[in-house]
Amino acid sequence: MLDLKFIRENIDLVRQNIVNKNEKANVDNILVLDEKRRVNIQTAQELKNQKNIVSREIAELKKSRQNADDKILAMKEVSDKIKLLDEELSQIEKEILDIQIFIPNMLHNSVPIGKTSEDNLVVRSWGEPKPKIDIDHIEIAKQFGVIDFDRAAKISGSGFAVYTGLGAKLERALINFFLDFNTGISGYKEVMTPFMVNRESMIGTGQIPKLEEDMYKIENDNFYLIPTAEVPITNLHSNEILRPDDLPVKYCGYSPCFRREAGSYGKDTKGLLRVHQFNKVEMVKYSTQENSYEELEGLVCDVEKLLQALKLHYRVILLCSGDTSFSSAKTYDLEVWSPAEQKWLEVSSCSNFEAFQARRANIRYRPTHDSKPEFVHTLNGSGLATPRIMVAILENYYKGDKIEIPEVLQKYTNFDFINKI
Fold first, then answer.
1. Which domains, from first to last, does the chain contain?
2. What is the DSSP letter of 174?
3. Fewest CB atoms within 10 Å of the CB: 24, 271, 276, 373?
4. What is the pLDDT of residue 267?
5. What is the pLDDT of residues 268-293, one digit of tens each?
6. Cα 51–53–54 angle (5° rounding)?
7. 101-112: per-residue pLDDT in tens?
8. Residue (of 139, 100, 90, 181) closest to 406 by Cα position
9. Exposure string over 259-268, b if 16+ CB within 10 A, otherwise e
10. 5 near 34, Cβ under 8 Å?
11. Residue 248, preceding bond cis, omega within 30 degrees?
C-alpha cells in the first residue's frame, strides 16, 4: 500500500503509474477525503485543547467552592462535538483506505514502460535449446506412467494432476532438491508454515482485495488456501519491529499452492501448464530500503543457480510496466524452453515490493538502534515451482525409450532414468 502523504504529494505520478501498470483505480476522491480528514483532525484537536483548558478551570472553581455548572454544560457540548468528529474521522479514513488499497505499487524507474509481455526485455540467457520433439509432456507422462491426468480429472476435475510411481518420486525429489540447495548453497532459513491463512495475511501481501476472485476460501472458518508460500512467510513478522542486525532475513519454504485461475480463459491450460494445485518452494527476503535492489539481483542469481544445476536452457526477462504485478515495483521472470511447445515457460518470478507489503502488514525495522522505525522492503521469488520444471525435464531429458534424470536429482530419486511402461 502506498503512503497517503506520498499519494497526496505525487498525485499525478500515481495516476500515470496506474495507467502504466494497466490497472484501474479511482484516485479522484482521495485528495478531497484527505483534506476533510486533516480539517477534521485539526478541529477535533482544537476542541480537545479547549476541553483540557476548561477542565482545569472547572477543577479550580470546584476547589474554591465556586459554581461551575455553565462550564460543565458547555464542555458536555464540546465532548459531543468531539465524539461526532471522531466518528466522522473513522468513516473518512475507511473511505480513504477503500481507495488506497486498490492503488498499485509504484514502479521502479528502471522498469521499461510497455503494455504487454511483448514489451518485456530479455536480460540474459543460459544454455542452448534442445531440438524440437514431436511429443509433448502429456503424452510422455502417459507413455512412461509418471502422471495420470485422466484420473485426476475424475477425482477433482480439470486442472489437476496425479503423480504416480517414479513420477511421484521425481516430484518429491524436486522439492527436496530445491529446499536443500536454497538452504545449503544459497543460505536461506527453511520454514514450514500453515497452508491456510486468515484474511489479514492475504491483505498484507496484496492478494486481497485485488485478486480475491482467484483465491480459494473456506467460508465457514474464514480461511484462505494459500496461492503461494509468499503469503504466510511474508506475514511471519507482521506487526513486528526488526533489529538492524537482523537484516537481510532470508527464508525459504515448501507449500502446495492453490489458485482458481479465474482469469485464465483462453490461455494454454493443458497438462501441467496451468493447474489449480501445484507444489512450490518459495524464497522470501526482508531487506533494508537501501539494499533491496541488490538483494533482488541476488535473488535472481539464486534461482539461476537452480536452473543451471538442472542444466535447463533458460532466460531472464525484465517485465515491462504493463506486465508487472499490482504489488511489485520491479519483477524479473525466469523462463525455461519447451522443445515440444517451442516456447518459453515461466518457472519463477522474482520481485521487489519495496515497502508496499510491509506497510500493509506493518513490518518495520530500526535503521539504527535508537532511530525511528521504518518499513522494511520485502522480496520474493519462486525457487522453484515444480509443474513447468517437470514439463521441462520430461521434454528436455526425453530420449525416446527412456527419460534421463538430471544428475543433481539422482541422489534423491535413487534412479537415473525412467523406462516406458
1. 4-100 (1.10.287.40), 117-419 (3.30.930.10)
2. H
3. 24
4. 59
5. 678 999 999 999 999 999 999 999 99
6. 65
7. 999 999 999 999
8. 181
9. bbeeeeeeee
10. no
11. yes
